[in-house]
Design a protein that fits this description.
- The complex is a heterodimer of chains A (698) and B (374).
- With 698 residues, chain A is an alpha/beta fold.
- Chain A has 5 domains: 36 residues, no CATH class; 184 residues, MetI-like fold; 161 residues, D-Maltodextrin-Binding Protein, domain 2; 151 residues, Periplasmic binding protein-like II (D-Maltodextrin-Binding Protein, domain 2, 3-Layer(aba) Sandwich), CATH 3.40.190; 31 residues.
- Chain A has 28 helices and 11 strands.
- In chain A, strands 5, 6, 7, 8, 9 and 10 form a 6-stranded mixed sheet that branches. In chain A, strands 2-1-3 form a 3-stranded parallel sheet. A two-stranded antiparallel sheet of chain A has the order 4-11.
- In chain A, helix 1 crosses helix 11, helix 2 crosses helix 11 and helix 18 runs parallel beside helix 27.
- About 1% of the residues of chain A have low confidence.
- Chain B is of the alpha+beta class.
- Chain B folds into 2 domains: 221 residues, Rossmann fold (3-Layer(aba) Sandwich), CATH 3.40.50.300; 127 residues, Nucleic acid-binding proteins (OB fold (Dihydrolipoamide Acetyltransferase, E2P)), CATH 2.40.50.
- Helix content of chain B is 24%, strand content 33%.
- Chain B contains 9 helices and 20 strands.
- In chain B, the strands form 4 sheets. In chain B, strands 6-7-8-3-9-10 form a 6-stranded mixed sheet, sandwiched between helices.
- In chain B, helix 2 packs across helix 3 and helix 3 packs across helix 4.
- Chain B is elongated.
- Classes of the chains: A alpha/beta (698), B alpha+beta (374).
- The interface between A and B is medium-sized, with 19 and 26 residues.
């Protein structure tokens, strides 16, 4: 007997230990790595405060955090007030039917996927804009706040209602009986009783608002970013460790808050002297805190909603995440430098709203949905062609972009902009093979053939996006990557299907960790990213196959009828500024992709900086005997026609679902099927049992 | 208790969702009176109390307080305080603050609050509990806090809505004595609502028996018990054998096939009446001297007496006796004239039969279609 019970305790103890381990281990690791000396996410090389320093010096993440906190606080406070009153009203409804109807209607938005809420919000704001006859999009702080309050409301109502139901109805009668007016009774008796519900509603609203991405993405506009949006848009590159630092700070702050609230709150047992003091002066504290909160809330709302922004020029710049020099590690803060330079040169203030996106498709969606207006964007080559074809680009004013003369001729008049009207190239790059020279026999990786080498079975990383994966297959098979011939696509598919059993996994960002830690030996990825990885693992080497993809990211001005002449002028000046020597060098050093700007590649400091990263960096980024124009023309990705694009995506899905060796075994299917079977079995069991019982009762 | 009227209810009617809860109630409540509204659940006693407290506005009729009509006065402006059934203590306040609640509202100086709270704690025997959380108190202690909280405002009237319902039997008995003491000590008018007839009889100056939204009888406990005015009151208060009878003439009544001498008069000759005989008022006598004879069908030992059910002429009588009998024994009974209570026929006549079945309350519990009351 004793033995079993002690075994049971051990079991139950290890079970709860396991649960807490699962809950807290990721956070612990995140905090640990926020103190990592190096950039690696896998090797802890030593303790350092580097990322915290960087965080405090760059300011970009902090600003996003600041906005996130302000929005979370405001939306939590406002939705808590509205939601509590609403719950109170619902609770005291006379008609039971009406009450339950209202409650269910309240719950519906909570069940809605965020995407539905987000899109409907966007449509609403666009509709209001049209009704009000306003030229500019309404989207901004106000709309984001409204959206957050809206999605928080049901949660607050849902956490206050049960508390109200728990409350003895004679409690408020007792208060009125003792001399309270109905309002006093609410404040003195009912409010304290439902306070735990209100607080948990507020905390829930706060945290939901803090980490919302989807709804925010649709309603935020172009003038600022919240933390989740900033982090999401960083995926052009790996998430940098300063994110670990900021998330650790957020976690610790919330943890301390919870700890404090548990210490002071509770249900009377173990009350401290401090809590007793608070209790005694509760009234004053309550009045003080609520007055403060009200003032802050009203103040901020006024500031953002009703006070017109100061008359100052703004320029809305929309770039890839981590795609400009931002002042970290003592580098140049390009945006700030431009604002200063502009003020000095033209004696006029201009405010750059700099926000970021994670992919060309996100950029396209934002632009075409009209969710936000931008003045300067950084699309890739094929996207420039698409935007141009659809009339979404404004021609640049080259009379304001003198520095275009420093762009190498190789990068002018390419397919996406043959008339040199719409774009200026920003960076370019090449896809190649990154391999671990310590693990791979010499000479094995000399071209795309390495991607189907039996010797490297299980150590190959393929790119997890259809265009690049098919591209690699086609380069290896010597097929035109822009072909419309289905047979050719099928051949590429066969190649990939055969390759599948050799591939360790299909990756995007994870390529960093897997290659740096030596988990995988060879990967297809961009040359610029190779240089980043090399910083963390010097065994890595780069091989550029003969035929391969080059891409160009360009700078453009999207069409916007609401934009005035002056803003258009400033946008061109901004582009010109980006091409001037100091910012162009800083950006190229930060991004590590190749620059098409002669001012950069002839800059001694730049050459020195790159060779510090890797002695052959310049050769890797800028191969000597490269006829860029010819190569680019031959191998770059062009916009696929919709038919072909769809065909490619279908092949890609098939590839991901089917196994490489023709066996029809997919673990996800098995899991899904067995879950379905369990559910059906349970349903049948309960139905039969109910039938039986009914029979028994009747 | 004196005869000065403090509260007058004049033709009060109230209905909820088309169901009439009170039908034209008239009631006078005097200063310093301990008055109890007694009746089964659903009889309208709590509604009457809530009308006096101000939580319910009557559809018809007037509530007069100290000569003034107060129908439209909200609860917080009435000089009346309530002790609620489930105490309704404020869980976020300690004992002291719960009791001080009313005084804090009226901005009484701290010094005075302190003296009066102490005074109240003494009254309810809870000295030393000032800083305790109300949730840590027992039911009886919570009850005392609720009473103290209501009394500290020195109301002219204290309303008590079944305040002892949640306590166990022993504690309930003690609290009955305590409440009576507090009422006499403070001289405040108590209006007490209960469905427990024993509680009503032992504490009250006046008992108001209610049923179906109407007052059945108002009177002192002795009068209510000894001279019930109709079958309902007789049945509800204590145990009673209620028989159909005929008032042959003044002081002569016939029931159970016999003619008896009684002390009642003023009925029409040969008027059909209800006759009540209390089980403890029946004398068991040798069969040859008996007015009525019957057979014992059941005996229950009650400690200091036996409760006998006897079949007399197909009517099951309940008789209380100290002598032991067994089922099947034949007994004879005798009833003294002053033990016979003759009542006019009423709507309740015939509703309460003999002791061959369970009580109405029991029937009610076993009825699946019946509504849960109150």
């Amino acid at each position: 007997m004793k033995k079993t019970s002690s075994r049971a305790t051990v079991l139950s103890k290890s079970y709860s230990f396991l649960i807490y381990l699962l809950l807290y281990l990721p956070i612990f690791i995140m905090i640990l790595f926020s103190f990592n000396e190096s950039k690696s996410m896998t090797n802890f090389t030593g303790f350092s405060l580097r990322w915290y320093r960087e965080l405090f010096s760059s300011g970009k993440a902090f600003e996003a955090l600041k906005y996130s906190l302000i929005i979370a606080l405001l939306s939590a406070v406002i939705s808590t007030v509205i939601g509590t009153l609403a719950a109170y009203g619902i609770h005291y409804m006379r008609s039971k039917a009406l009450r339950s109807t209202v409650t269910s209607v309240t719950n519906v938005p909570m069940m809605n996927p965020d995407i539905v809420t987000g899109i409907s919000m966007l449509l609403l704001f666009a509709f209001v804009q049209v009704i009000l006859g306003m030229q500019h999009s309404l989207l901004g702080f106000g709309t984001l706040l409204i959206a957050h309050i809206t999605f928080n409301l049901p949660y607050v109502i849902l956490s206050v209602l049960p508390k109200l139901r728990q409350m003895d109805p004679s409690l408020s009668e007792a208060a009125r009986d003792l001399g309270c007016t109905p309002v006093q009774s609410f404040i003195k008796v009912e409010l304290p009783f439902i306070l735990p519900g209100i607080l948990s509603g507020a905390v829930m609203a706060f945290t939901l608002s803090l980490d919302d991405f989807v709804i925010s993405n649709f309603t935020i506009g172009n003038s600022f970013q919240t933390l989740p949006i900033l982090i999401y848009s960083m995926t052009k590159r790996e998430v940098t460790p300063d994110m670990n630092a900021i998330c650790s700070i957020v976690f610790v702050v919330i943890f301390v808050l919870l700890l404090l609230s548990n210490l002071t709150g509770g249900d009377g047992s173990g009350r401290t002297a401090f809590a007793e003091k608070i209790r005694r002066h509760k009234k004053q504290i309550m009045i003080g805190v609520s007055a403060l909160l009200t003032c802050v809330t009203v103040g901020i709302v006024f500031l953002f909603l009703f006070v017109p922004p100061p008359v100052e020029k703004t320029l809305n710049v929309y770039n890839w995440g981590e795609y400009i020099s931002d002042g970290s590690d003592g580098s140049l803060d390009t945006i700030e430098a431009f604002e200063d330079w502009y003020l000095e040169t033209y004696g006029e203030k201009v405010k750059v709203n700099y926000t970021t996106y994670p992919s060309n498709e996100d950029l396209y969606n934002k632009l075409s949905s009209g969710a936000a207006e931008y003045d300067v964007i950084f699309p890739s080559d094929y996207m420039v062609a698409k935007l141009r074809d659809e009339g979404m680009l404004e021609p640049l004013d080259f009379s304001l972009i003198d520095n275009y003369q420093y762009i190498l001729d190789d990068f002018k008049g390419l397919f996406y902009d043959p008339g040199e009207q719409y774009s200026v190239p920003y960076t370019y790059g090449v896809i190649g093979l990154i391999y671990n020279s310590a693990k791979v026999p010499d000479g094995l990786v000399d071209g795309w053939g390495a991607m189907r080498s039996e010797e490297l079975r299980g150590k190959i990383l393929q790119v997890n996006n259809p265009r690049d994966a098919f591209g690699i297959a086609m380069y290896d098979l010597d097929i035109d990557v822009n072909t419309t011939d289905r047979a050719e696509w099928d051949r590429a598919y066969d190649y990939l299907a055969k390759q599948k059993s050799l591939v360790q996994s299909y990756v995007m960002d994870e390529v960093y960790n897997k290659m740096e830690s030596g988990e995988a030996y060879v990967a297809a990825y961009y040359a610029g990213d190779f240089l980043f990885m090399y910083e963390n693992n010097e065994d890595l080497a780069f091989c550029q196959p003969e035929s391969t993809n080059f891409f160009i990211d360009a700078i453009c001005i999207p069409k916007n009828p609401a934009r005035d002449e002056d803003t258009y002028r400033i946008a061109n000046i901004f582009i010109n500024y980006l091409l001037s020597e100091e910012p162009a060098v800083a950006d190229a050093e930060m991004i590590c992709y190749a620059s098409p700007n002669s001012l950069v590649i002839n800059n001694g400091e730049y050459i020195e900086y790159m060779s510090e990263i890797h002695e052959d960096a310049m050769d890797i980024l800028y191969p000597e005997d490269l006829d860029f124009k010819a190569e680019y023309d031959k191998y770059c990705y062009r916009l696929l026609d919709p038919e072909t694009n769809r065909y490619m995506n279908n092949l890609w899905s098939r590839l991901k679902i089917e196994s490489g060796e023709g066996e029809d075994f997919d673990p996800t299917n098995i899991i899904a099927l067995s879950m379905l079977a369990v559910i059906i079995a349970a349903a049948v069991f309960f139905a039969v049992r109910r039938k039986r019982r009914e029979k028994y009762y009747s | 208790m004196n005869n000065e009227k403090l509260i007058e209810l004049r033709s009060i009617s109230k209905s909820y969702d088309g169901e009439q809860v009170l039908r034209s109630i008239n009631l006078d409540i005097h200063r310093k009176e301990f008055i109890t509204l007694l009746g089964p659940s659903g009889c309208g006693k709590t509604t009457t109390l809530r009308i006096i407290a101000g939580f319910v506005t009557p559809d018809e009729g007037d509530v007069i307080f100290d000569g003034k009509r107060i129908n439209d006065l909200p609860p917080h402006r009435r000089n009346v305080n309530t002790v609620f059934q489930r105490y309704a203590l404020f869980p976020h306040l300690n004992v002291y603050e719960n009791i001080a609640f009313g005084l804090r509202l009226s901005k009484t100086p701290d010094e005075e609050i302190k003296t009066r709270v102490t005074e109240m704690l003494t009254l309810v025997n809870l000295r030393g509990f000032e800083k305790r959380d109300v949730s840590s108190l027992s039911g009886g202690q919570q009850q005392r806090v609720a009473i103290a909280r209501a009394l500290i405002n020195r109301p002219e009237v204290l309303l008590l809505d079944e305040p002892l319902g949640a306590l166990d039997l022993k504690l309930r008995k003690d609290m009955q004595v305590e409440l009576r003491r507090m009422q006499q000590q403070t001289g405040i008018t108590f209006i007490y609502v209960t469905h427990d007839q024993e509680e009503a009889l032992s504490m009250s100056d006046t008992v108001v028996v209610m049923a179906n939204g109407e007052i059945q009888q108002i009177g002192t406990p002795e009068k209510i018990y000894n001279e019930p005015e109709n079958a309902f009151v007789a049945d509800f208060i204590g145990e009673s054998n209620i028989l159909n009878g005929t008032m042959i003439k003044d002081y002569t009544v016939s029931f159970a096939g016999q003619t008896f001498t009684c002390e009642d008069a003023g009925f029409e000759p040969n008027e059909p009446v209800d006759v009540v005989v209390r089980p403890e008022d029946i004398d068991i006598v040798p069969v040859d001297k008996a007015m009525l004879t019957g057979e014992v069908t059941a005996v229950t030992f009650k400690g200091d007496y036996y409760e006998i059910i006897a079949d007399i002429d197909n009517f099951k009588w309940m008789i209380e006796t100290t002598d032991a009998f067994r089922a099947g024994d034949t007994i004879g009974i005798s009833i003294d004239p002053y033990e016979i209570q003759v009542m006019k026929k009423s709507e309740f006549s015939g509703m309460f039969g003999d002791y061959s079945t369970f009580s109405d309350e029991m029937d009610h519990l076993s009825d699946p279609d019946g509504e849960a009351s109150e």
